[in-house]
């Protein structure tokens, strides 16, 4: 049953330093990779300091009726929120068995807004109060014993201020950036929250305790997530975020956002989709969602807020039986990098593109409220 969309905000933000990325490991369709030098600390610092709005993460796909597309257009491109049936679900960013952060929609107790925000952060605590609600293959990245003492949100600025107890400081230094990503992407997935500021035992953090990651300004999704481990320094680049597929230990498919750097000046959406075709890095546990013969022909933003993505792939000449992972990754990537929440896909010129989930992606589909609703 179709779920209505959350409001989608802004696009990926530019970074001043670039990294050309290469092909990755064999998985769904297979690929090869080459590694280059690790990213310099300046890349991280720059991304942490770039301000701007990014899109909200959404989830399991559903077809959108034409009248819904008309509603989007008449509402100035802003989509309404609904989904009362899944009102207790909350999307949090957990660490998977590959060491990557992935959005996981958990069933947490219904509560008021402040308690809900505290609970979503508590779900990030290793061996915490909601550990039993976390699916197999995932875990919270905050150190055990961390308590969320308070969360306040300034409605006018969209700034969320979080206060942890001192156990927050007992994290592993290697997890420092991922901790910031998990907190930031979890909270900014909630409507109205654009930035995050951290406090510990009544004192504002100006930098992280162990590796000194700067916190002199609020964190936003412009910091990226799951940055590439193998990169090369170039000037003038932009950040885009794409969704690849992975499988849990139980064989359940889920989607993982990965930030990539592309040369500045490119069309953001085309660059993101081409990174999707390029594939993940080797050894990170992510799967190729495109075949090696996939070609991006065109990306067009049309009326009613619908983005049309045209692909060529001889493996699916008739547009039937296309892997769901391939099509859903396209829709999630489009939703992440544009304000347009609706996507329709053309394959080899065919207007009907049927996935293995029997959904026709040739018609506008949305990325609804929750991503990765995984069984326990």
TrEMBL record:
Residues 1-30 form the signal peptide. PROSITE patterns: PROKAR_LIPOPROTEIN. Coiled coil: none annotated. Pfam families: Germane. Keywords: Signal. Residues 117-209, 269-356 form the GerMN domain. It comes from the Bacteria. This is GerMN domain-containing protein. It comes from Paenibacillus monticola.
């Amino acid at each position: 049953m179709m779920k209505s969309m959350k409001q989608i905000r802004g696009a990926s933000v530019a970074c001043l330093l670039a990294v050309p990325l290469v092909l990755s490991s064999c998985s769904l369709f297979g690929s090869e990779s080459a590694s280059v030098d690790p990213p310099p600390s300046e890349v991280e610092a720059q991304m942490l300091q770039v301000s701007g709005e990014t899109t909200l993460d959404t989830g399991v796909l559903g077809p959108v009726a034409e009248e819904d597309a008309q509603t989007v257009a008449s509402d100035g491109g802003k989509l309404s929120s609904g989904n009362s049936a899944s009102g207790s679900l909350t999307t949090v960013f957990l660490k998977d068995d590959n060491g990557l952060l992935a959005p996981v929609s958990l069933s947490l107790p219904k509560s008021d807004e402040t308690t809900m925000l505290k609970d979503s952060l508590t779900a990030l605590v290793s061996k915490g109060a909601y550990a039993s609600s976390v699916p197999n293959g995932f875990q919270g990245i905050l150190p055990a014993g961390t308590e969320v003492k308070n969360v306040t949100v300034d409605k006018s600025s969209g700034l969320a201020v979080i206060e942890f107890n001192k156990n927050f400081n007992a994290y592993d230094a290697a997890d420092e950036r991922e901790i910031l990503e998990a907190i930031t992407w979890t909270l900014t997935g909630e409507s109205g929250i654009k930035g995050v500021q951290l406090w510990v035992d009544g004192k504002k953090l100006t930098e992280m305790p162990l590796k000194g990651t700067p916190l002199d300004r609020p964190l936003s999704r412009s910091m990226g997530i799951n940055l590439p481990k193998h990169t090369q320094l170039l000037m003038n680049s932009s950040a885009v975020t794409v969704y690849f597929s992975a499988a849990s230990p139980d064989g359940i498919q889920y989607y993982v956002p990965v930030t990539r750097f592309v040369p500045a000046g490119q069309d953001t959406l085309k660059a993101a989709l081409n990174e999707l075709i390029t594939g993940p890095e080797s050894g990170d546990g992510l799967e190729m969602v495109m075949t090696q013969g996939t070609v991006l022909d065109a990306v067009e933003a049309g009326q009613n807020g619908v983005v049309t993505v045209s692909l060529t792939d001889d493996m699916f000449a008739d547009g039937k039986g296309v892997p769901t992972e391939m099509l859903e990754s396209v829709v999630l990537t489009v939703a992440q990098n544009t304000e347009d929440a609706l996507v329709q896909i053309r394959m080899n010129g065919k207007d009907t593109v049927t996935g293995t989930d029997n959904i026709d992606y040739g018609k506008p589909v949305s990325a609804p409220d929750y991503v990765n609703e995984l069984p326990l």
